[in-house]
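Hey, does this match?
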Amino acid sequence: MEPIHMTNQEYGQLVNQMSKESPKARDLVWSFCVGGGICVIGQLLNGLYRSMGASEKAAGSWVTISLIFLSALFTGLQLYDKLAKHAGAGTLVPVTGFANSIVSPAMDFKAEGFITGMAAKMFQIAGPVLVFGIGSSVIYGLILCLFRR
């Protein structure tokens, strides 16, 4: 079988022809509802922790811990990816998406061993997010310091 020779532009046109159109409005609404639903769960947990006597700051911390734990658990049970498949960015934006981006690659590479598989690959997706997030915050902090003087 002879290899197919085409330019990047020709390949892009082929991909556009073969791809079906995404229902953007429906995806946007569904993503908004799922992301909002995750936030509602966070608010309900916040109310629960506050009613149990936690301060506002402590309740916020417990909500974050709970959402990360639930996200990791649902990723481990292969439920989070099924939800993300239909909800799109609605599952990625809250802290739950970050937890999923760490747990999912770790599970995928666990067969390669604890060190070279799981531990080495778990930040494969989340690593760039951390690098650019921390880098952006440093640049923002420097700019803020320069203009506050």
Q: What stands out?
A: The mean pLDDT is 85.
